Structure to design on (218 residues):
């Protein structure tokens, strides 16, 4: 039985969907699971999502990527940015999941440590993983944060990366709930928080798991 390489798209506080898709995947200790960012905001249980991811990291090789929503959240908590933009893009739901009472020191220490451990990207022999996109002519280690975490595929789909590797990304929600596959790039943000699906992809075998926001398998 080969070790699997599995990517999971944007979760956005949908803890029931994450729980269901992990049951379906049944992660093994030697698997590598790459979560593509945007664990928090918009959905109702960001705290529960982080609890599950932290637990997942104890039983398989979890590689969590930093999304733009985690970036906003951390900037507010650190006092680097005002809260307005984060609140506008779903921060209220995250704060409510933690029972926020006005103190920005609301995160449990293990949640803060998890968020501070998130990676900008991950690279394997044949693939690389980012939250949003990439500059096709720039080495991964030199990519800007804007490209990795904020660029929308609705604005433009980047050409194949200079490395020749296939990109697996999220961030740009596909409102029809379908995976976007253009060959050199696959986007698996299938709009879970908006009423569509949470998607996981076995990158090598091309097996796909999808669940609804409420945790029902498709």
């Amino acid at each position: 039985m080969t070790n699997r390489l599995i990517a999971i798209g944007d979760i956005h506080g949908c803890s029931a969907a994450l729980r269901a898709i992990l049951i379906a995947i049944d992660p093994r200790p030697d698997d590598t699971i790459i979560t593509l960012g945007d664990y928090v905001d918009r959905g109702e249980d960001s705290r529960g999502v982080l609890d599950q991811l932290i637990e997942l990291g104890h039983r398989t090789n979890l590689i969590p990527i930093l999304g733009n929503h985690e970036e906003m959240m951390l900037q507010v908590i650190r006092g680097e940015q005002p809260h307005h933009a984060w609140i506008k893009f779903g921060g209220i739901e995250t704060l409510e999941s933690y029972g926020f009472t006005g103190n920005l020191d609301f995160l449990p220490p293990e949640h803060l440590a998890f968020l501070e451990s998130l990676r900008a990207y991950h690279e394997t022999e044949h693939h690389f993983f980012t939250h949003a996109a990439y500059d096709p002519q720039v080495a991964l280690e030199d990519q800007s944060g804007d490209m990795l975490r904020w660029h929308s595929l609705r604005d433009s789909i980047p050409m194949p990366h200079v490395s020749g590797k296939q990109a697996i990304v999220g961030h740009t929600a596909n409102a029809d709930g379908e995976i976007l596959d253009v060959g050199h790039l696959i986007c698996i943000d299938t709009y879970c928080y908006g009423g569509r699906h949470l998607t996981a992809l076995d990158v090598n075998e091309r097996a796909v798991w999808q669940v609804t926001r409420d945790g029902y398998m498709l």
User: Anything to note?
Assistant: The CA atoms of residues 7 and 151 lie 19 Å apart. Residues 84-97 form the longest helix (14 residues).
